[in-house]
Amino acid sequence: MPSVFLQLETNDGKLHIVERALVKQMGIIREMLKLECGDTTEVIPLPRVDSETLKLLLKWCESMKSWTDDAEVSVRINILKRLIQRSGGDDEVLFQLITAANYLQMDSLLDAGTQLLANIIQSYDSAEELRLRFSIANEEE
Amino acid sequence: MSLLAYGDSSDTEPDALVDFTAMLRQRQRQFGCGNKAQAEQADDQGYYLEQYVLGVLDFSSQYGIDYSISYTAANVIGRPTKYPAYGDYPETFTMRTYGDWWKRAPSATREIQAQNLPKLATQDYIVVYFEEFVVPTEVVIYETFNPGAVVRIWAYGMTKHWTCLWEAESETDSDLARPPADSRRFAPPLNNTAVITKTLRIDFNHSRLNYYTEIDAIMLCGRTVSRIKSLLGKQQRQQLKKPEFVSLPVAIPLTPKAESSLESSPISGGGPISYKLRSLKFQPKCRPDGATKLHEFINNDLSQFLMENRVEGGEQQQPAVVPSICLTDLPFEILLRILSYLDLKSLFRVGQVSRIFYDISSHPLLYAELSLKPYWHLASSTLLCTLALRATMLRKLDLSWCGGLGNISPTEFKKFLTQRGDNLTHLRLNSCKFLNSSCIETVGIVCDNLIELSLRNCATDPPLLNFSCLANLKNLERLDLFQTAFEPELLLSMLEGNRKLKHLNLAFCGVSVNMDNVAAHLATYNTQLISLDLWKAHFLSARGLLSLARLHQLEELDLGWCLREASLGDGLFQLLSNCPKLKKLFLSAVRGTTERDLMHIAALGKSLEQLDLMGILNITHERVYDILVHCPKLQLLDLSFCDNIMDRDFDVLADWSRHFNVDIKSSRVYVPR
């Protein structure tokens, strides 16, 4: 009988025990499970994800669990915003989430993250402001 | 860095001249040094003037047909005739659509590059001109029916630029949150401006209105400028500078408010001061004592100026912590995806940030869909040139409303199309005034992969669409010729050539087209037709209607003001019997509709969602009830101007409306104030 829990190992060596149902949202895990014919007690390695990010990803999966259909983008963006704010509100968190979502094939998170970043970029009125916001060097000077 | 940044000419543009020089003058007074010559220059003691519209230059749509006096754009000319009365009067300007009914119809289209649109997108517009040039202080719009559609007011200045005088804030703006059903003298607060104008453009968004909005008159109030003749003379002598585009990196001043406000954002590379000055289009006059004045200004007033204009001088904060992962660390395809959500203006802005971003933001995948419609006031030949370099994978192009008043040349457009048009699937050129027959020919030759071609409001005399210029197009599924005249022979040959045609709009096509012939052609060659709009078409008879009955895929048919008194014969019955998918049927003012026809509608209109029976005489309550009961999918029923439906029936209709969940429109008599 397939276990209810799966073991994920992040790149810092930590083991995370998670509900199978929850991580079904991660495309890459779905693929792996298909190949392993469902039942595996082995540890699934996630070399490109660190513990902090995985914790956030699991929180996201938790929020998404209640939506049977895909929630509207604006709703997802709000959930994502709150999630990021609670973990410090850094751009870095958002970038990590987007990169992880891309690697783990989590489309709904990737959509929401990229759209959120686009909204942030669109809110600035000048290239200079954008450079300041994202700490990008001004090549002209 | 020099303040004398632009050339050696003593050209100044009146907008900037009035603002900046007035400020200098004020400083000079404070410091006790007057300059009489400058003071006179900026002296504009004209007189206050209120004027009504003298003429209409352009409009995107109207309800009536050109030669008529009912519900046409020309009704906006002159003094208000109906205001303060409230009601549905033909002596006003009315647009063709309202609400979201057209978005819900089978013929609805999707916007190209939708992210470019502002929250309250412009759906319709009208361009009007007045007699005298003024600096506007107030613009009054007299709304006499269903007010609340005005979203933007533009003025065309003597500098040949459009300036936005007012813009509705957001969807929660009180103006658009359905003002009370009463006539209104709408005069929103205008931005502070020095624009000298006598041409206005009013933008409308009527998506939240209950029914058609109607405009009785527009008034422009302002001060005249006494030295107008000398300014005009200067205009003719100099070569006008339009907003410049630097090719690498590209800079576009795309904010509507940029030109009139001193607090405009920086637009291209360089230090903060040159940003400011460039956006002001500042070009100082070099008078003999000019250098001294400048020197004094730099010494005494510059810091004040910087503070007042919130320029981030040497106040840049050091980033507290250098982040370990930067925006540019994200993989290329993710950055591309993020940029794909941006509107064109933001995309260009991002391109100025750094070399990496310039490379990503100019990737052709981001330019597969291009819409300059929201930037109509800035679109120019230069912009087209710049975009041509990037848009190597162009598939959908919308240049609607662009290039008016000479900003885009036909040659540049043809060049653009020749370079990038061969893979186009969707092309929209609504209200493009720069189009000539040679442009249309280029479309026909280059864009043979077109699935959709929209040429709304391109009426010229003689018609643009003549001979065989578009006969090469064989893959069309959508052809929109709303308010555009064409040679009937060309249309017939296009119908023969485009067997997959699904959507056809021939509204307002004019008197010369024999619609019966067109209908016969459609029945023979275009049997996959889903929607057909023949609003105000002449020469459609019962015979034509019978032809249309052979289009079994038909879901939408607009026969408003066709047929008129003529008897429909068997036509409507045949149509309803053979087109079971019919969802939208407009029979506005088709007075030949009989009681039997209405019974057929009830019996056979199982899929009907939108039904317009405006102006059909002798409709009885029984027939209305019949239709409501037997058409379960009905959402809209228009019974305006049906003489049998009285004002006193309003309560009954309201009851039925609730019970059957149908939006029923009817004419009401509004008690005059």
Oligomer: heterodimer
Mean pLDDT of chain B: 82
Rg calc of chain A:
17 Å
Q: How many helix segments of chain B?
A: 18
Distance between the termini of chain A: 64 Å
In short:
Chain A has 141 residues and is mainly alpha-helical. Chain A has a single domain, classed as Potassium Channel Kv1.1, Chain A (2-Layer Sandwich), CATH 3.30.710.10. Helices cover 56% and strands 11% of the residues of chain A.
Give an overview in words.
The complex is a heterodimer of chains A (141) and B (673). With 141 residues, chain A is mainly alpha-helical. In chain A, 56% of the residues lie in helices and 11% in strands. Chain A is built from 7 helices and 3 strands, in the order ββααβααααα. A 3-stranded mixed sheet of chain A has the order 2-1-3. In chain A, α3 (51-65) packs across α4 (73-86), α4 crosses α6 and α5 (91-103) runs antiparallel to α6. The model of chain A has no long low-confidence stretch (mean pLDDT 81). Chain B has 673 residues and is of the alpha/beta class. In chain B, α7 runs antiparallel to α8 (355-361), α12 packs parallel to α13 and α13 packs parallel to α14 (542-548). Chain B has helices spanning 14-30, 36-41, 228-237, 272-280, 290-308, 332-340, 344-351, 355-361, 381-390, 410-420, 437-446, 488-497, 515-525, 542-548, 571-578, 595-604, 621-630, 650-660; strands at 48-52, 55-59, 93-94, 124-145, 150-157, 162-167, 184-186, 197-204, 214-223, 369-371, 396-398, 426-428, 452-454, 478-480, 503-505, 531-533, 556-558, 584-586, 610-612, 636-639, 663-666. In chain B, α11 (437-446) links the parallel β12 and β13 (452-454). In chain B, 27% of the residues lie in helices and 16% in strands. Among the domains of chain B are: 4-34, no CATH class; 49-238, Galactose-binding domain-like (Jelly Rolls), CATH 2.60.120; 329-363, Monooxygenase; 534-673, Leucine-rich repeat, LRR (right-handed beta-alpha superhelix) (Alpha-Beta Horseshoe). The model of chain B is unreliable at 1-25, 30-42, 239-269 and 311-320 (pLDDT under 50). In chain B, 45% of the residues are buried. Classes of the chains: A mainly alpha (141), B alpha/beta (673). Chains A and B meet through α5, α6 and α7 of A and α6 and α7 of B.
